[in-house]
Each structure stands twice: as C-alpha cells, then as structure tokens.
Amino acid sequence: MNSTFYYSEISSATARRISELMQRGESVMILGPRGVGKRYLLDLVDEIFAEKGMDLPTHAKFSSSEVSFLESDVARSLANASEVDLEGEPSIEHWAEKVQTRYTAQSPLRIYISNLDGLSKRLAHHLLSSIQKLVKAHVLVTVVTGEGNVIDLVDGSPTSAWSCTHQFVVHAHDRYHFGKFLFKRMRQMGLRFPHGIAGAKRVFEKIYDCTGGNVTLARAVLWSVADTLTFHLERPGRRPMGIEEKFIPEDLTRTHVVPTAGLVPFRYAAHAVHSAIREPHPSSRKLDGLDSTNKVLEDLERMLLRSECIYVGDQPHLLELAGLARRNEDVLEWFCPYAEKFALSWFNHRRLGDYYAFAHDWPNAHRLYEKLSPEERCRPLSDDDNAVLLRLMDGLSVYFHRAVSKAAASRHEDETDESLVTLLRKEVRLALKNLLGFTDEKITCWERDYRGQWVRVSGYGEFTVLPSEIRYDWEALVMRKSVDENEYFGHKHGWHWVVCRNAERRPVSAILVDGRSDPLMEHEMRKDAIFRVFRAFVRARERQWLIQGLEEKSIRSQLETEIFETFWKLTHSGSWDAHRALPAIAHPLLRALPSVSRLVFCEFEHEASSGERRLKPIYDSGFPHTTPERFHAVVAKGRLADWNEMQPPTEVDEHEANELFGAGGLAPFSNGTLIIGSPGIKGVVLLEQARGISITESDMVFLFTLAKRFESVWAQAMRMKVLHQSMDVDHTPKLLLDRKSRIIYANQPAIDRLVLGINSGWQAPPVSISSIKDMTPAQRKAIAPHTERRHEKFEDLTGEMFGWWIRECLPLEDERRSPRGWVVTFRNRSFLFKSFELLRDLEKSTDISQALRILTNSLWKLLDHRAKPKIRIYLIDKQDRTKLVSSYATGLTPSNTKHFESGGVVFVNKLEETAWRCLASQHPQAFRTRTNPLDLATTGRTNNGLEFEWIDILPKHEILEKKPGDVAIDFPLLSIPESLGKLTINLTGEDAEKLSAEFPGQLAALSLVFSDLLMRREKEMEERELQYQKDAQRAMSETAHNLVSRFAALSVFVLHYRGQEHHCPQLKSVTDRLEAFYKGAVLSIRRIKDRVGPVTLKPVPCDLVEVISNAMQIGLGKMGAWSWSPESMSNCLGCWDATHWENTLQEMIHNSIDFAKPELALKVTVAMREQYSGAMRWMVLTYEDNGRGVREEFKKVIFRKQSHREEIGNKKGGGIGLSYVGRVMEAHGGTIEETGEHGVGARFILSVPWNDLKQRREYQI
Predict the structure, then answer these.
(1) What pTM was computed for the model?
(2) 419 near 1205, Cβ under 8 Å?
(3) Closest by alpha carbon to 1105, among 1132, 1128, 1079?
(4) What are phi and psi for residue 645, nearest 5 degrees?
(5) What CATH architecture does domain 4-173 belong to?
(6) Can you name the CATH fold of 572-725?
(7) Would you state the CATH architecture of domain 837-1014?
(8) What is the pLDDT of residue 750?
(9) What is the CATH class of 1093-1259?
(10) Which of 492, 739, 836, 1146 has its CA 20 to 30 A from that of 543?
(11) Tally of CB atoms within 10 A around 416
C-alpha cells in the first residue's frame, strides 16, 4: 500500500475531503506541528456530519503535555471511546479483539484518535499495528492525528507500523480560519488588535502576508512583537496590550529558501526575525547596550559554520512536519524558531538569565543557570518542558542511528568497526555531559574478552578496576539463560550502567556511570533521564553490532566455504598428505582471523623407547616454504605434558612459547600465543596474536565451530585415504557412501556414466539421481556386487529414468571377498506419498506460512474437508540448544497463535523427553493424549494400524488446543550439521482413525523439505540485510557527490535581498556580509571535497612564495598577524599544485586559531629555504605560531586518519584537516613533522622534493 501526502490548509474544503473519505470507509492520518489546529480540523469534520444528520465519530484523546508509557491507560481510553468492556488487565490486543467481534464491515467503528505523539514510540507502534489490522478487516474507520515525530510509523517504510493511504500534512490556515486562530492566540497571549475596523484589518493583512497562514510562523511573529514591547508571553495578571502596524517589522517578508542536501539550520528564522527589527533589542539595552543585530548575524555565521542543523533527508515533507517550513509549489517558504522553544523555556522567566537568553548571550545565561539549585537544574521547570525534554532524549536514538549509518557508509576498506564504536561512545559521553552534567571522569566503557573478564577499553574514567558489586551483577546477566530486556539497565548505590549485547544476544560490552557524588542519584527523574540516554545508545549499538555481525558472518562464511572446498579438492581423490593439505587452508583461516598474525600446526608423536610424548611442527605460516623435514620434534613439557582433547585454550607469553617450541626449529615468537587442541589431527594449533589486537570471543566461537566441523571432515578424508590405498587402480565404476546414504566418493568412471547431483562432497544432503544414461547390462553388472549378480532385477534399469532416490547400499568386494567399497541402488521416490504434488508444491514455496497452508490443504484432501488439522513448528534455541521454542503455527485461534509464535511454548530437553523423542531417533513419532487417566497403557494403535504412544494432558496443551484422544505426529527437521527443530501435525481422534499405518513414513520427506525452506529463509534474510546496507551506502555516496552543486541554490537567498537594496539602503551592508559568507561557504565545501576525496596533484608553473602569501592573507585575515622570516627565500619558481598548497596553509591556519592563547595576539612566522640531500634538491617550509603547541604524546598521531576522535590537549582536534596535510605531503613524496614546544607554540616543518613535481602524480586516500 503506497502512502499519499496531501499538503493542505486547515479549511472547510479539507474538512469536506476528509469527511468524504470517511464515508467511503477510508481512514486518514493528519500530521502537523504542535498547536497547528488538528483538533480544530476534526471539529470542522463533525460540523459536516451534523449538517448531514449523521452520527458523529467518537473521540479518544491522549495528553499533549506528557508522554504515556502504560498500555493499560491507552487501552482504557480506547475502550471508553469505543463503548466496549475489557475484562481483566486491559491491553491493546484485547481492545482490538473486542472491536473485531462487535463491529462488522457493514457497520464499522468510526473514531478519532488525537495526539498520537503523546504515547511512547513503543506504544504508538503497537497501537498503529492493531489499527492496520482492523482497517484491513474493514471494521474500523479512523482519523489519527500526530506531530512530525511519528512520520516513521506511518510512511510505509519497512519499519513502519501502519501504511496509511491518505495522509494530510497541515501547517497553515486559509484566510477565514487563520483569522479565527489569530484572535484566539492573541487572546491567550494578552494581545489585541487596535480599535477600529480599518486599523485591525491592516494589522491582520500584514500578519497574513508575512506568514502566508503558517501557524508556527505566526507564533514567531507574535513572539517577536511581544519581545519588542518588552512583554513576556504568558505572563499572568497583565491587561491586554494593543498592537499596531508599526510594531510589525517592515522587512519581515516571506523568504524563499531551498533546502540543500537535507541540511537546514535550527535557528535560522529566529535570526531572520531579529535582524529585521530596526530598533535595538529592549533586553539588550539592559546589557550594556549590546547591538542585537550584529550579535544575531555573528550567531548566524557561527551556527552555520558549526553545522548546528537538523537532517531532513531527501523528502521535503519531513521539513514541513518538523514545523520549520511550508510548501508553495516546489519551494519551501520561511521557517520559524519553533525548535528554539525548549532553549528559551529552560531558563526561568522570573530570573535575569531569561534576559540573557533572549539576547542570545548564552555564556551569561549559562552562568546564572549554574547558580540554580540541583533540583531546579536536573529537571525541566514545567510539564510542557518535561515533554519536550523527553522527546529530545528520544531523538538521541535517531541521531545515533544516523551516525552509525553515516559512518558505515563513508568508511574506507582499510578502516575497522572500532571507529563506529568510538563514535557512539563519544556521543553518549557528550549526551551524559551536556544533558545530565556527568564529567568524563565519571564515565567508563568496558568490554568482555574471550576469557570472560571485564576490562576497561576507554581512556576516560578515574577507576580501572570494575567494582565488585557491579561485577557480580554483570556476571549474573551472563550466566542466566533468560533475561528480561530491561534488566540490562541497572543502578545501585549511585552507580548507573547499561550492558550491551552482540548479534548473538550475548553481553559483550557496557557503560558505567559513577553517580555516587550526585545529590539526586535516587531521584526518579534523574534515573529516568539516564535510562533514556542509555536506551538510545543501546539501540544504536545493537544496530552497529547487526551491521558488523552481518559483515563478519558473511566474510567468515565465505572463507569457511573456501577452507572446506580447498580441503575437498586436495583430499577427494584419496591421494593426499597432511603436509600438503594444511598449508592450503592456513591462508583463508588467517584472513578470517585478523587478530592472529601467525599459525603453526603441531602433531603429537610417541617415543617407543622412552614413552615420552613429543610434539613436532608440520607447518608454520610465518615461513610457508619451510619443509616439514626442517622441523624437529620436541618433548611435550609443562602444560603440554598432560594435554588432552578436552583441554581449554591456554595462553602463554612469547618467552614461554619460545621455551616450549624453540628447539623444534621454529622462528622465535614475538607476541602472546594461544594454544588450542586439535582432536582431528591429534595435535595442537599455535595462534600468535597480532600486535595491538586481542583475540575476541567471536574469534574463539568461530574457531571452535570450525574445529568441530573439521574433525568429522578430517575423519572422512582419512577413511578415503585408506580406501584409496586399498582399491586397485582400474576402470570399474565405484561409489562410496556413508551410513546416512550420502555419496562421499565417486571415481571417474562412475561420474562419467551416472548423472550425480553431488555438490560439496560429504556436506551434501541425501543425493538424488536424476537419470542413468547409456548403461549396458554389462556395465550395470560391473557396478553390482557379486552377491546380487545372480538376480535379474537389475536388468529392468534401462533407458531414461527420472526421480530415483537412494534405496540401499551393498558391500563391494573383489573375487577374494575383500572389501573395496560400496555400491548404491535406487528406487522411485513416489512411494513417499500417494501423489508427488505435495512435495513438488512445498519445494516451490517461498515462506513458512505458504508451506503450512499447502500442507493443510493436502491433509484436507487426504482426510475430509471438515477435518481441522493443527500444524506447529518448534525450533531449537540457538543460544540454548536444550530448548525447543514455538515458532510457527496454523489452525489455532488468533490469540493462541500470537502467543505461540512469540515463543510462549518451550520444551526443555531431559525434562520433557517426549517432546524431543523424534529428534533423538531422527524418525517420525506419533503420540496420543489419554482419554482415561486411570489407563496405564503406554502404547497403542488405530484401527488402520497406526502405532502411537500414550501421553498425559499437560497445562501447555491448553494453548496448543489439544483435547483427550487427539493424535500428534512429530517430524524432525534435519539439517547439516545439526537438527533445526520439529514439525507437529495435530489431528482429532476421529480424523486420526482415517490414517494408514504408513502415513508417518510416507511424509518423512517433510523433514528435509521444511528444513531446506527454513535454511533458505534464513539465508534470504541475511542477503536482504546486506542489500539494505549496500543501498544505504550508495545513497550516502550520491548525497555527498551532489552536495557542492546543490549548495549553489542558496544564491537565490542572496539575490532576493540584493533586489531590495533600493528600498532600504541600510540593507546593503548586511547583504554584503551574507554574500561574503556564501562565497566563503562555497570555498569551504570545495575544500572539504578536496580533502576527503582523492589527492590528485596537478602541478603548473608558478611561484610558491606568492601562493603561500595569498593563502596567509586570506586565511588569517584579522584573526592575527603573520610575516616571512628574514632568511626566507624571495621566490620559489617551479611546478607546484597551487590548490593543494593553499588548502594545506588554510588547515594549519585553522589549527593555529583553534589553539591560540586568549591572552596573546596570534602571530605566525613562515620561512622557506632550499636544502640538498646528496644530489636531490628539497624545498623546506617552516610554519611557526605562538599558540599552545602540541603535547609530546600527540605529535605522532595528529597526522593520522580519524585522529579527530581523540582530544588533543584542551581542544578537540579537527583531525581531518591535519590528516589531509599529511596525505598531501605523502603525495608529493615529502614529509611533515611537528617540532614545537608545548606551551610555547607549534612548529611544523614541511619538506618536499623540488624536481619530482614536474610530473603528475596521484595518491588515493
């Protein structure tokens, strides 16, 4: 269902359109900013229904001042409006069931649901999901209203809850209704129109022309007018004040602004309103005559340069829903300071800090704010501010998600996922610091290593050892098998923490906040605010784990396949040896483990004479060309003396590793080494850790899983090797099968004569034979065993034969009756069911629900259309393989189906052995519930001979809708290498009597068909997630590519004011500054594009001294003074890339400005000289300033990529800029180093070859 957005005004025409849709049975969504008049529009719709004599819809209203988190309150409001009774604990599902029972498609429920934004995101999503089901069932017709923050729940995206077809976006009133709104709003604010119709009409016309009917913009105009009159809004006990036309700024006209790449400044309209006021700001007169106009323009430039803006995406209606703009054809007109409401409301209107805030003097306002009591500082001052703060904290989740997506899309191949984690931890630290006042010393980050120990991973925090009481709580979360979602958030004795889980839902990292010195550590509002910040971090962290887990799983899955395919190619012929096979799999294994730099295989030997146990290296990846003969066996001593196959991994340092294996001819170990047992090859594997990277828990899980699979593979390869050594080299076709009838070996004559469906050897499921071609009786006689050659039944295998499955395997012997292998015979697979249509249809199905419907229809055909079979699927829990968890069902009631598919039924192995019987035997099992509790019989059979086992009625059977006498047949879901779960067909006793004794065996193939379907579904989900990620990366790349061209559209803004200069000459100075800012912004964006894109040198003949002089004059400007050193060269003629040299100087100038001392004027000295190194001529540029300088520990990292994530000194270093300078020098074949003294100033020395710049060189970032 596609959603359609109608950009409409609040008018009678819009109300008629909504009423017509409701009369046709269509539901509607109304979106708009707060206070725009969405309920007023519903009143207009009610008036239309009343005129037609129709019943008015009921109304469910939610609070607009506080967010509701209780589902029971929401359900009661809906029940009261719907006139339905809810028994027991009210819930949204219960309300939906009542509505579906009471109302019909001919008489649906008509209801308004107002202020959806008054619910938490979880409740809103839950409610909209229920609404969508009721709307599709045609028993509900509704109109839902909400603000722009609910757009992601109704826009039809994959994560939305309701794909509403008709969505009305309202931001403005038409002329008639705008007048009614204006009178109401002015009366609330204590304002009134001037006396006289003519004067009031002129004021109304001017306000309407300025705002175009935009409600949010009208509030901004009234706010600026009231602020001009030194009249604070909503001040009680004041007589209404009349406004006149002269109070409305003359230059306040509609401004056309085109959003560029989705980036729009938050406070743009506030600055535009203030800059249009001619008289100085009244509050600023009390603050030493502060010139508000200049201050506003300075704030505007600073805000834009800092990119303090909101991201609206590539859909302009998101900007409208945020209340910042309105649509006029294809142009967005005006935005207002609606987002600034929280910043102004935060300060108490009764204090002097409010005057500083209105004057945008934020330092003084914050200074006074710090003097407030802790109770006043830690929470908002009103219910309205409380709701805004809660939405602000919820918005952190969106910000974190976008930060992860942006970082994942823009990172390079040589970067790791650690950058994403660092980014998230930095953002949550800033949120805790800016919103709640926690300093960096109180915040620490922890991770759980592969040994199960919690270690600190961040450079912040004042303690390095995890407190014991916290460690016990975290370990309890790790050990428990079932943990509620909210238990990962905790607080105790002033400590606050959150534990994060990886893609496998295992605790791996945590953030701990020390709030013991906080006087309000037990305050509910304080704990709730911390919980919200943590919840936003966890959502983004789990998304990052999902992205990282999918990438890591995909890469490791490919490498695991490569390992087994490589091993298969080397061992399938049977003529192989370990010295040749193990080196071939070492390379993909090292690529799958980036934390391992070296891999050594060792095998155990036993000295017959002394009985000593010895270890001999057979392969070393550090020296792959060393033959095994160069290694020597060493005595297994120390920890290796009593080594067994169940020994856990042992970690030794480099000294102990050299002591244990140094005499074996191995090169010395330089890092810590992990020793892991390898039962398959009867030895150990040595893993030397890479420098600076620790072996993680996921690495160990991958190794153990691979070792478990490789053990059986090694055993099969050894059996094939023995078989190959014992088989004569002849041209007789031979097949080798294992005990499960899977082909694991076929010599070339058999492959040539039989068309075999063999994929990757012994990993294949049971193999089907599609046809047997060109086989004469003599050839068939050649592959038949001697004991069967007397029989003539093989003579029937002639011509093309389709659909043959494995029937049996017989021993293959030579004339001396010595074993040589096995030979396979086949049978027609139509015996599986009377008709093969069922299996063929199931193999074509695309999802589980469709397959269950196909199976149900087939059972109806077999039994009776009046039969009511119930089919259920249980899957083994991946985290705890002792549990069978309910997953899919059909034939149950809606409530039981929902409970079942949510995992509400669990069977634990060994405690409920009957439910696991089919998995233990790997054969279908039939059970029947007792009709007589006193009957002690254990087995029985139906009249047709179907055998079953009697079982007792359990409490769980109420959800499964089992009754006495019902028969349940369990089919195991088999897969390689382990089972997935089971499929259960439940029939009434009457229907079960119609089944034949062979029924379970006839449907045995369901085990394979449904297992294959589940595996394909899981693989498709993984591929879909990867495709989503690729699409997101491509979208981000296209947005970055179009940024420079789209930014040029801002010239419309400058040109509009240029056309107004003849009306207002005073406007020229302001327009000049804005145009200069626009040109500077364009140059800045181009410079950003240069420094994040490829560094491509394009040298041209020029004087480098002149290039540097121009760059210093433009970049430093009035921020400081600069000069050439007296001993510097007067000119430097050659072939230079002027653009990159100008950008390089700009970055160093910005670095000097950021780290300048406030008590000293900035001074920069530049010197250039030539220097010879042998026969090579070099140009050396020295750049010095008198700022703070760089600390010694940071001098080696400031030119690296992503050093901007580290705090250098007391400032947050730019990182991108200085790393760009380093890459430019590297592209020139030169160097850069910092040799200044901390506290005295920075000193950069840039050295590049002189002659190497005559040819064009390219360097890719």
Answers:
(1) 0.32
(2) yes
(3) 1132
(4) -70, -20
(5) 3-Layer(aba) Sandwich (3.40)
(6) Beta-Lactamase (3.30.450)
(7) 2-Layer Sandwich (3.30)
(8) 54
(9) alpha beta
(10) 492
(11) 11
